[in-house]
Amino acid sequence: MRSFFLFIIFIAVLGCTSDFSGKADFPALPFRGVWLTNVDSDVLNSRENIAAAMEQLSRQGFNVVFPVVWNKAWTLYPSEVMEREFGRRVDPAFASFDMLSVLIEEAHSRNIKVIPWFEYGFAASYNRDGGFLLGQRPDWAARDAEGRLLTKNNFEWMNAFHPEVQQFILSLILELVENYDVDGIQGDDRLPALPGTGGYSDFTRSLYLEETGTPVPEAWNEENFLKWKADKLSAYGKRVYDSVKAVKPNVLVTWSPSVYPWCYENYLQDWPTWIRDGYADLVIPQVYRYSFEDYRRTLQEMSPERLGLNAAEYRVIPGVLINLGNYLIDTEYMTQVLELNRAYGFQGEVFFFYEGTRWEDGRIGKVIEEFYSR
What we know:
By secondary structure, the chain is an alpha/beta fold. Helix content is 42%, strand content 13%. Helix 6 (163-179) packs parallel to helix 8.
């Protein structure tokens, strides 16, 4: 009970500040965000759709959007890096106009920040046996203990420890930061990440032996091996952070990992360390729960005290699931989540995903708009 009340105090202190980060041009609190996808949504498909969405979101009180820019082995913006490395410049669905430039223009004209989201991260494909990327670069494949292509939940993975893979993803990020007037960039539960069962490619085996003097253990979750893998990804997160800041210091580096500590063993994401060591302007954990009690319990499990963080370090805003497939959050549950977030001192949230704000005559969007207008 003591740690719960400390949690309330810590977050309340955070909520009293007008500048969340102190390091960058962070959107003024409250932080009200939403992810925009090109899957099960046509929001990004035309200037007209983008303008209508930004007008709607502005009216409802949102101040930041996270548009997808990397998935299915495609960039959704014209990329010289992709053209040079793989001969494909942009997702064909976005060949007729520069979606990201249009989105930035329409969003900024309404005082909405734009933080592009590199959704696939180190994932190469979904249920395609490695797809285009690993078809072109089989040496980039991550492997499990049996030597099979590393796969989790039907996603097939590149080797996040391979320097060429790391440089490729970093080059995409820096290209975007250099060429667009973005307010930040975002990685998620696939960046920096890798299923914990990985680490068995020939390259990674050699690297582990070289650095530790011992072969990789048979058990993928052996304590030292797991930490070595997680530390490698944390180091990459710092490299991304430092590289972005070297180009544009005011561009935010944000991460949206899975919830801790589940994400550590399953995806090697040690995000409390990312915060503690200073390479996360904001962490938006995916508190995706289908019941209010599960949502509340998960927030309580991520109190600053339990994560070993103090109030000044607690750079966290919850990610809330409102729509996925045929699921649309219940109106009462939506209201409870918003009220709980404020009761716990959180001055905002980010919703997955945009279509949930307008499904069924926009009933969830109306709840959000009414709450944000208080």
